[in-house]
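User: Some background: our group keeps a shared notebook of sequences we're curious about, and every so often someone picks one and asks for a predicted structure to add to the entry. Today it's my turn. The entry only has the sequence so far, pasted here. Could you supply the structure so I can complete it?
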Amino acid sequence: MSIFFPAYNDWGTIASLVVLAAAVVRDLTDDWEIIVVNDASPDHTPLILGELLRYVPHLRIVEHERNRGYGGALRSGFAAATKEYIFYTDGDAQYDPGEMELLWQQMRPEVRKRIKTPNKLLAISSARAVAASKIWIS
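Assistant: Of course. Here's the predicted structure to add to the notebook entry:
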């Protein structure tokens, strides 16, 4: 599973999101990565991400030299993802990445067959990951 967080001025929240996502996903699958797209944050986000690299070996950082906006950060995150499934939520901790476990539980074989995308499942940021799975999978 690829997990990514678009980040702009999220230095106060990005570390906890990455650590929580790593703690959750490692219990779900051995094949995972976390990607943070730093959308040219002028705050301490680059410093925090640099420190996180020392502690989270599955972490990759995508750096934008200039701000591309939310859509540009999403495009970069999807392009950088290398795993079969993708989970993303915003870097401001608006949603709980722990909810990816709820979505993962919905990925039964009969659901996997219904996914139209060649090798990706989009798990959009949602207050309820199960509701998001119904939207994207149906």
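Suggested note for the entry: The first strand starts at residue 2 and ends at 7. Helices lie at 14-25, 45-55, 69-80, 100-105, 109-114, 129-137.
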